[in-house]
Amino acid sequence: MSRAGRRICGDLAVDRCTLRNRRVEICRSSVSPFDLDVTAGHRVRDLLDPSPRADKGEAMRFLMMHRLDERVPEAWNPSQEFIEKMGVFIQDSIDKGILITAEGVHPSEKGALVRKTRGAAINATDGPFTEAKEVIGGFALINAKDRAEAVEFAKSYAGLFDEVEVEVRQVFEFDDSPSPA
After folding, report:
1. pLDDT tens digits along 39-73
2. For 68, what's the count of Cα atoms within 13 Å in the CB-facing half-sphere?
3. What does pTM read for this prediction?
4. First CA to last CA across the chain, in angstroms?
5. What gap in Å lies between CA 9 and CA 27, rounded to an integer?
6. What's the CATH code, domain 54-176?
7. Where in the chain do CATH 3.30.70.1060 domains reside?
């Protein structure tokens, strides 16, 4: 994405850029983070990930969340060898059009858990989450033609770690909503 300019509109900063040879404006709020393509008839996701739906014979999006035991020292301090293997894996996945985005997260001591139970108040608990054996270590958003392909990709990803659990979930798209009766 190449930036072509920026303008301020209320408390929104609007970045003008060229994305996949199309002029778009992306709004960024100073109040809460979000991206919004304000070009009529287009969504940012469609420009960044123009993959149509699998039920039309094409790719779907899947979220992969990896969990690890944060008590293991290398969980938050990976070796140089691991970093290099992960870098090659990520670049290869991007080049193949599979990986949309991926991020690791900080240990749970820097996080919080917000919980609301039916009929009760909302509670927030600061980390670390000592009661949890495994915590989320990161996530990836991928394109795959179906769940089986997403699971195979998750297996390749898991192979980079000594010990990890990877949950694979299909992203709920607007088109997945039931039609009004």
Report:
1. 444 444 444 444 444 444 578 999 999 999 988 88
2. 24
3. 0.66
4. 41
5. 9
6. 3.30.70.1060
7. 54-176
